[in-house]
Design goal:
By secondary structure, this protein is α/β, with parallel strands linked by helices. It has 15 helices and 13 strands. The protein has 2 domains: 9-47 and 293-379, Aspartate Aminotransferase, domain 1, CATH 3.90.1150.10; 50-289, Aspartate Aminotransferase, domain 2. The protein is globular. Bound molecules: pyridoxal-5'-phosphate. Pyridoxal-5'-phosphate is lined by residues 42, 105-107, 110, 131, 177, 181, 209, 211, 239, 241, 247, 252.
Length: 387
Amino acid sequence: MKMKFDFSDKIKKLPPYLFAEIDRTKQKLRNKGLDLIDLSIGDPDILAPKEVIKSLCNSAKLKENQKYALDQGKYELRREIKLWMKKRFGVDLLDENKEILPLIGSKEGLVHFPLAFANPSDYIIIPDPGYPGYLGAVILAGAKPYKLPLLEENNFLPDLSRIPLRVRKRAKIIYLNYPNNPTTAIAPKDFLEKAVKFCSKYGIILVYDNAYSEIYFKEKPLSILEIKGAKEVSIEFHSFSKTFCITGFRLGWACGNKELISGLLKVKTNIDSGVFLAVQEAGVAALRDCSYFPLQLRRIIRERRKLLIKILNSAGFNKIYSEATFYLWVKLPPQFPHSLKFCKYLLEEKNIVATPGIGFGKYGEGFVRFALTLDKKFFEKIDLTDK
Ligand SMILES: Cc1ncc(COP(=O)(O)O)c(C=O)c1O
Protein backbone atom coordinates (compact mmCIF):
# COMPACT_ATOMS: atom_id res chain seq x y z
CA MET A 1 0.00 0.00 0.00
CA LYS A 2 1.32 3.44 -0.90
CA MET A 3 1.49 5.56 2.24
CA LYS A 4 0.36 9.16 2.13
CA PHE A 5 2.43 11.47 4.29
CA ASP A 6 0.84 14.64 5.53
CA PHE A 7 3.01 17.35 7.03
CA SER A 8 2.23 18.40 10.60
CA ASP A 9 0.13 21.53 11.13
CA LYS A 10 3.24 23.34 12.36
CA ILE A 11 5.23 22.53 9.25
CA LYS A 12 2.28 23.59 7.10
CA LYS A 13 2.33 26.96 8.88
CA LEU A 14 5.98 27.68 7.96
CA PRO A 15 6.11 30.52 5.42
CA PRO A 16 6.48 29.63 1.73
CA TYR A 17 9.94 29.76 0.25
CA LEU A 18 9.95 33.09 -1.53
CA PHE A 19 13.14 32.74 -3.47
CA ALA A 20 12.27 29.63 -5.47
CA GLU A 21 11.88 31.60 -8.69
CA ILE A 22 15.16 33.46 -8.15
CA ASP A 23 16.90 30.15 -7.41
CA ARG A 24 15.50 28.61 -10.60
CA THR A 25 16.65 31.59 -12.70
CA LYS A 26 20.05 31.48 -10.97
CA GLN A 27 20.45 27.81 -11.90
CA LYS A 28 19.28 28.41 -15.47
CA LEU A 29 21.84 31.18 -15.99
CA ARG A 30 24.61 29.11 -14.38
CA ASN A 31 23.73 26.18 -16.67
CA LYS A 32 24.16 28.54 -19.60
CA GLY A 33 27.71 29.13 -18.35
CA LEU A 34 27.15 32.67 -17.09
CA ASP A 35 29.29 33.91 -14.19
CA LEU A 36 26.97 35.36 -11.57
CA ILE A 37 28.00 37.87 -8.93
CA ASP A 38 26.30 36.34 -5.93
CA LEU A 39 25.78 38.92 -3.18
CA SER A 40 22.81 37.16 -1.65
CA ILE A 41 24.30 34.97 1.06
CA GLY A 42 25.64 36.04 4.45
CA ASP A 43 28.50 33.57 4.27
CA PRO A 44 31.94 35.18 4.21
CA ASP A 45 34.42 34.13 1.50
CA ILE A 46 37.40 34.86 3.79
CA LEU A 47 39.57 32.02 5.09
CA ALA A 48 39.26 31.32 8.82
CA PRO A 49 42.23 32.24 11.07
CA LYS A 50 45.09 29.75 10.74
CA GLU A 51 45.19 29.18 14.51
CA VAL A 52 41.57 27.99 14.37
CA ILE A 53 42.18 25.56 11.50
CA LYS A 54 45.31 24.20 13.16
CA SER A 55 43.51 23.65 16.44
CA LEU A 56 40.59 21.90 14.72
CA CYS A 57 42.87 19.56 12.76
CA ASN A 58 45.02 18.64 15.76
CA SER A 59 42.09 18.22 18.14
CA ALA A 60 40.14 16.07 15.70
CA LYS A 61 42.92 13.43 15.79
CA LEU A 62 42.55 12.78 19.52
CA LYS A 63 40.31 9.95 20.66
CA GLU A 64 38.95 11.92 23.61
CA ASN A 65 37.63 14.52 21.18
CA GLN A 66 35.92 11.93 19.02
CA LYS A 67 33.40 11.07 21.73
CA TYR A 68 30.05 12.65 22.60
CA ALA A 69 30.48 16.14 23.97
CA LEU A 70 28.97 16.98 27.34
CA ASP A 71 25.72 18.92 26.97
CA GLN A 72 27.03 21.89 28.86
CA GLY A 73 30.09 22.23 26.64
CA LYS A 74 33.79 22.20 27.49
CA TYR A 75 34.79 24.12 30.58
CA GLU A 76 37.75 25.72 28.71
CA LEU A 77 35.41 27.13 26.09
CA ARG A 78 32.93 28.49 28.62
CA ARG A 79 35.80 30.09 30.49
CA GLU A 80 37.22 31.66 27.35
CA ILE A 81 33.74 33.03 26.50
CA LYS A 82 33.52 34.52 29.99
CA LEU A 83 36.90 36.27 29.53
CA TRP A 84 35.93 37.51 26.07
CA MET A 85 32.61 38.94 27.31
CA LYS A 86 34.50 40.78 30.04
CA LYS A 87 37.18 42.10 27.69
CA ARG A 88 34.86 43.09 24.87
CA PHE A 89 31.82 44.40 26.77
CA GLY A 90 32.99 44.78 30.36
CA VAL A 91 30.36 42.20 31.35
CA ASP A 92 31.87 40.42 34.33
CA LEU A 93 28.86 38.82 35.90
CA LEU A 94 28.98 35.60 33.94
CA ASP A 95 29.27 32.36 35.90
CA GLU A 96 30.80 29.98 33.36
CA ASN A 97 28.96 27.01 34.88
CA LYS A 98 25.44 28.42 34.86
CA GLU A 99 25.31 31.47 32.66
CA ILE A 100 27.14 30.37 29.50
CA LEU A 101 26.11 27.64 27.09
CA PRO A 102 27.93 26.66 23.86
CA LEU A 103 25.63 26.05 20.88
CA ILE A 104 25.75 24.34 17.50
CA GLY A 105 25.71 27.80 15.92
CA SER A 106 23.59 30.62 17.31
CA LYS A 107 20.64 29.70 15.04
CA GLU A 108 20.29 26.39 16.83
CA GLY A 109 19.87 28.13 20.20
CA LEU A 110 17.70 30.96 18.87
CA VAL A 111 15.29 28.50 17.30
CA HIS A 112 15.20 26.00 20.16
CA PHE A 113 14.83 28.62 22.89
CA PRO A 114 11.01 29.15 22.75
CA LEU A 115 10.47 25.41 23.24
CA ALA A 116 11.64 25.95 26.80
CA PHE A 117 9.38 28.86 27.70
CA ALA A 118 6.49 29.45 25.28
CA ASN A 119 3.08 27.78 25.32
CA PRO A 120 0.55 27.71 22.45
CA SER A 121 -1.47 30.71 23.66
CA ASP A 122 1.63 32.88 24.14
CA TYR A 123 2.75 35.63 21.82
CA ILE A 124 6.34 35.87 20.73
CA ILE A 125 7.29 39.29 19.42
CA ILE A 126 9.63 39.31 16.43
CA PRO A 127 11.11 42.09 14.29
CA ASP A 128 9.90 42.71 10.72
CA PRO A 129 12.07 42.81 8.66
CA GLY A 130 14.02 40.19 10.55
CA TYR A 131 16.21 37.13 10.38
CA PRO A 132 13.82 34.38 9.13
CA GLY A 133 14.88 31.97 11.90
CA TYR A 134 12.75 33.84 14.46
CA LEU A 135 9.45 33.19 12.70
CA GLY A 136 10.41 29.54 12.27
CA ALA A 137 11.16 29.38 16.00
CA VAL A 138 7.74 30.79 16.91
CA ILE A 139 5.88 28.41 14.60
CA LEU A 140 7.82 25.31 15.68
CA ALA A 141 7.10 26.17 19.32
CA GLY A 142 3.38 26.42 18.46
CA ALA A 143 3.24 30.01 19.76
CA LYS A 144 1.74 33.08 18.07
CA PRO A 145 3.97 35.60 16.26
CA TYR A 146 3.46 39.33 16.76
CA LYS A 147 5.47 41.27 14.20
CA LEU A 148 7.12 44.48 15.25
CA PRO A 149 7.86 46.85 12.35
CA LEU A 150 11.40 48.20 12.00
CA LEU A 151 10.85 51.38 10.03
CA GLU A 152 13.32 53.58 8.21
CA GLU A 153 11.88 56.71 9.87
CA ASN A 154 12.66 55.23 13.30
CA ASN A 155 16.26 54.22 12.41
CA PHE A 156 15.01 50.63 12.17
CA LEU A 157 14.36 50.49 15.91
CA PRO A 158 10.95 49.16 17.00
CA ASP A 159 8.46 51.42 18.73
CA LEU A 160 7.67 49.33 21.80
CA SER A 161 4.93 51.72 22.88
CA ARG A 162 2.85 50.60 19.87
CA ILE A 163 2.63 47.00 21.02
CA PRO A 164 -1.02 46.57 22.09
CA LEU A 165 -1.68 45.86 25.75
CA ARG A 166 -3.34 42.50 24.97
CA VAL A 167 -0.08 41.40 23.27
CA ARG A 168 2.20 42.73 26.05
CA LYS A 169 0.17 40.82 28.61
CA ARG A 170 0.34 37.54 26.73
CA ALA A 171 3.84 37.85 25.30
CA LYS A 172 6.45 35.44 26.61
CA ILE A 173 9.45 36.40 24.50
CA ILE A 174 10.68 39.29 22.37
CA TYR A 175 13.51 38.84 19.87
CA LEU A 176 15.75 41.84 19.26
CA ASN A 177 18.76 41.79 16.94
CA TYR A 178 21.37 44.55 16.76
CA PRO A 179 23.58 44.99 14.78
CA ASN A 180 20.56 44.17 12.69
CA ASN A 181 20.19 41.82 9.79
CA PRO A 182 18.97 42.99 7.31
CA THR A 183 18.77 46.74 8.07
CA THR A 184 22.39 47.02 9.40
CA ALA A 185 21.22 49.29 12.25
CA ILE A 186 22.93 49.48 15.64
CA ALA A 187 20.85 49.96 18.80
CA PRO A 188 21.82 52.94 20.97
CA LYS A 189 22.08 52.48 24.73
CA ASP A 190 18.92 54.42 25.54
CA PHE A 191 16.88 52.10 23.32
CA LEU A 192 18.33 49.03 25.02
CA GLU A 193 17.51 50.55 28.42
CA LYS A 194 13.93 51.11 27.28
CA ALA A 195 13.70 47.52 26.01
CA VAL A 196 14.95 46.08 29.32
CA LYS A 197 12.50 48.24 31.30
CA PHE A 198 9.65 47.19 29.00
CA CYS A 199 10.48 43.49 29.41
CA SER A 200 10.85 43.78 33.19
CA LYS A 201 7.51 45.57 33.46
CA TYR A 202 5.56 43.00 31.43
CA GLY A 203 7.51 39.87 32.41
CA ILE A 204 8.73 39.26 28.87
CA ILE A 205 11.97 37.38 28.15
CA LEU A 206 14.37 39.45 26.06
CA VAL A 207 16.24 37.31 23.54
CA TYR A 208 19.07 39.47 22.19
CA ASP A 209 20.73 38.26 19.01
CA ASN A 210 24.25 39.72 18.85
CA ALA A 211 25.58 37.56 15.98
CA TYR A 212 27.16 40.59 14.25
CA SER A 213 28.65 42.29 17.31
CA GLU A 214 32.15 42.44 15.76
CA ILE A 215 31.25 43.77 12.33
CA TYR A 216 30.87 47.50 12.69
CA PHE A 217 32.44 50.61 11.20
CA LYS A 218 32.18 53.43 13.74
CA GLU A 219 30.18 52.89 16.89
CA LYS A 220 30.95 49.67 18.79
CA PRO A 221 27.80 47.59 19.31
CA LEU A 222 26.76 46.90 22.90
CA SER A 223 25.81 43.73 24.71
CA ILE A 224 22.34 43.73 26.29
CA LEU A 225 24.10 42.46 29.42
CA GLU A 226 25.78 45.87 29.77
CA ILE A 227 22.37 47.34 30.55
CA LYS A 228 21.26 47.65 34.16
CA GLY A 229 18.67 45.02 35.07
CA ALA A 230 19.17 43.07 31.83
CA LYS A 231 20.43 39.94 33.50
CA GLU A 232 17.06 39.47 35.22
CA VAL A 233 15.22 39.23 31.91
CA SER A 234 17.65 38.46 29.09
CA ILE A 235 19.55 35.82 27.26
CA GLU A 236 22.05 36.91 24.60
CA PHE A 237 23.17 34.87 21.58
CA HIS A 238 26.60 35.09 19.98
CA SER A 239 28.08 33.45 16.92
CA PHE A 240 31.57 32.44 15.84
CA SER A 241 30.28 32.20 12.27
CA LYS A 242 30.65 35.78 11.16
CA THR A 243 33.32 37.02 13.60
CA PHE A 244 35.80 34.29 12.63
CA CYS A 245 34.42 33.34 9.20
CA ILE A 246 33.58 29.77 10.22
CA THR A 247 29.90 29.49 9.33
CA GLY A 248 30.24 25.78 8.51
CA PHE A 249 31.88 24.81 11.81
CA ARG A 250 28.61 25.47 13.67
CA LEU A 251 29.60 27.18 16.88
CA GLY A 252 27.93 29.87 18.95
CA TRP A 253 26.90 30.50 22.52
CA ALA A 254 24.11 31.77 24.74
CA CYS A 255 24.79 33.74 27.91
CA GLY A 256 22.82 35.62 30.51
CA ASN A 257 20.12 34.74 33.02
CA LYS A 258 20.81 31.33 34.50
CA GLU A 259 17.21 30.11 34.53
CA LEU A 260 16.89 30.98 30.85
CA ILE A 261 20.15 29.15 30.14
CA SER A 262 19.00 26.11 32.11
CA GLY A 263 15.69 26.02 30.16
CA LEU A 264 17.56 26.06 26.87
CA LEU A 265 19.93 23.37 28.12
CA LYS A 266 16.95 21.17 29.03
CA VAL A 267 15.60 21.42 25.50
CA LYS A 268 19.01 20.75 23.97
CA THR A 269 19.70 17.75 26.18
CA ASN A 270 16.64 16.16 24.62
CA ILE A 271 17.58 17.05 21.06
CA ASP A 272 21.33 17.12 20.47
CA SER A 273 24.49 15.75 22.03
CA GLY A 274 26.62 18.85 22.09
CA VAL A 275 29.15 20.50 19.79
CA PHE A 276 31.98 18.36 18.33
CA LEU A 277 34.77 18.74 20.90
CA ALA A 278 37.39 19.60 18.28
CA VAL A 279 35.16 22.47 17.12
CA GLN A 280 34.89 23.65 20.72
CA GLU A 281 38.70 23.64 20.97
CA ALA A 282 38.87 25.61 17.73
CA GLY A 283 36.52 28.10 19.41
CA VAL A 284 38.93 28.41 22.34
CA ALA A 285 41.76 29.18 19.88
CA ALA A 286 39.57 31.78 18.13
CA LEU A 287 38.70 33.70 21.28
CA ARG A 288 42.11 33.32 22.94
CA ASP A 289 44.52 33.78 20.02
CA CYS A 290 42.73 35.59 17.23
CA SER A 291 41.69 39.00 18.52
CA TYR A 292 43.50 40.44 15.44
CA PHE A 293 41.05 38.69 13.10
CA PRO A 294 37.83 40.73 13.50
CA LEU A 295 39.97 43.84 12.95
CA GLN A 296 41.22 42.49 9.61
CA LEU A 297 37.71 41.42 8.72
CA ARG A 298 36.35 44.90 9.38
CA ARG A 299 39.08 46.40 7.19
CA ILE A 300 38.18 44.12 4.28
CA ILE A 301 34.43 44.70 4.64
CA ARG A 302 34.96 48.45 4.91
CA GLU A 303 36.82 48.49 1.56
CA ARG A 304 34.15 46.41 -0.15
CA ARG A 305 31.41 48.53 1.36
CA LYS A 306 32.98 51.74 0.08
CA LEU A 307 33.34 50.34 -3.43
CA LEU A 308 29.81 48.92 -3.68
CA ILE A 309 28.25 52.08 -2.24
CA LYS A 310 30.10 54.11 -4.89
CA ILE A 311 28.84 51.84 -7.67
CA LEU A 312 25.27 51.96 -6.34
CA ASN A 313 25.39 55.74 -5.85
CA SER A 314 26.51 56.30 -9.41
CA ALA A 315 23.60 54.15 -10.59
CA GLY A 316 21.19 56.42 -8.71
CA PHE A 317 20.70 54.47 -5.46
CA ASN A 318 21.10 57.10 -2.81
CA LYS A 319 19.52 55.65 0.29
CA ILE A 320 21.97 53.01 1.40
CA TYR A 321 22.15 51.82 5.00
CA SER A 322 25.38 50.28 6.22
CA GLU A 323 25.97 51.02 9.88
CA ALA A 324 27.25 47.55 10.80
CA THR A 325 27.13 43.87 9.65
CA PHE A 326 28.46 42.87 6.21
CA TYR A 327 25.29 43.88 4.36
CA LEU A 328 24.05 46.93 2.52
CA TRP A 329 20.33 47.65 2.94
CA VAL A 330 19.40 49.59 -0.17
CA LYS A 331 16.18 51.49 -0.71
CA LEU A 332 14.71 50.97 -4.13
CA PRO A 333 13.78 53.92 -6.35
CA PRO A 334 10.04 54.56 -6.86
CA GLN A 335 10.07 52.95 -10.34
CA PHE A 336 11.03 49.63 -8.69
CA PRO A 337 8.71 49.27 -5.67
CA HIS A 338 8.73 45.44 -5.67
CA SER A 339 11.93 43.95 -4.33
CA LEU A 340 11.35 40.46 -5.75
CA LYS A 341 10.80 41.86 -9.26
CA PHE A 342 13.82 44.09 -8.89
CA CYS A 343 16.03 41.16 -7.87
CA LYS A 344 14.80 39.18 -10.85
CA TYR A 345 15.71 42.11 -13.09
CA LEU A 346 19.17 42.36 -11.43
CA LEU A 347 19.74 38.68 -11.98
CA GLU A 348 18.53 38.44 -15.57
CA GLU A 349 19.88 41.73 -16.87
CA LYS A 350 22.98 42.29 -14.73
CA ASN A 351 23.81 38.78 -13.51
CA ILE A 352 23.86 39.99 -9.90
CA VAL A 353 22.19 38.01 -7.13
CA ALA A 354 20.76 40.05 -4.24
CA THR A 355 18.14 39.29 -1.59
CA PRO A 356 14.73 40.96 -1.91
CA GLY A 357 13.68 42.79 1.24
CA ILE A 358 10.25 41.14 1.21
CA GLY A 359 11.98 37.87 2.13
CA PHE A 360 12.61 39.35 5.60
CA GLY A 361 8.98 40.35 6.17
CA LYS A 362 6.42 42.75 4.71
CA TYR A 363 8.18 45.82 6.15
CA GLY A 364 11.28 44.82 4.19
CA GLU A 365 9.46 45.54 0.93
CA GLY A 366 10.98 48.39 -1.06
CA PHE A 367 14.52 47.38 -0.04
CA VAL A 368 17.16 44.97 -1.29
CA ARG A 369 20.02 43.43 0.69
CA PHE A 370 23.49 43.01 -0.75
CA ALA A 371 26.00 40.87 1.17
CA LEU A 372 29.62 42.02 1.03
CA THR A 373 30.80 38.44 1.00
CA LEU A 374 32.70 38.44 -2.29
CA ASP A 375 36.12 39.87 -3.04
CA LYS A 376 36.12 43.43 -4.32
CA LYS A 377 37.53 42.30 -7.67
CA PHE A 378 34.01 40.95 -8.39
CA PHE A 379 32.47 44.34 -7.63
CA GLU A 380 34.61 45.87 -10.36
CA LYS A 381 32.64 43.77 -12.87
CA ILE A 382 29.34 45.30 -11.78
CA ASP A 383 27.72 47.55 -14.35
CA LEU A 384 24.36 48.93 -13.29
CA THR A 385 23.99 51.52 -16.02
CA ASP A 386 21.18 51.02 -18.52
CA LYS A 387 22.46 50.40 -22.00
C1 LIG B 1 20.82 37.84 12.71
C2 LIG B 1 21.37 36.46 12.65
N1 LIG B 1 21.34 35.73 13.76
C3 LIG B 1 21.80 34.47 13.78
C4 LIG B 1 22.34 33.89 12.64
C5 LIG B 1 22.80 32.46 12.70
O1 LIG B 1 24.18 32.34 12.69
P1 LIG B 1 24.90 30.99 13.12
O2 LIG B 1 23.85 29.96 13.36
O3 LIG B 1 25.79 30.65 11.98
O4 LIG B 1 25.66 31.31 14.39
C6 LIG B 1 22.38 34.62 11.45
C7 LIG B 1 22.91 34.03 10.22
O5 LIG B 1 22.88 34.55 9.15
C8 LIG B 1 21.89 35.94 11.46
O6 LIG B 1 21.90 36.71 10.37
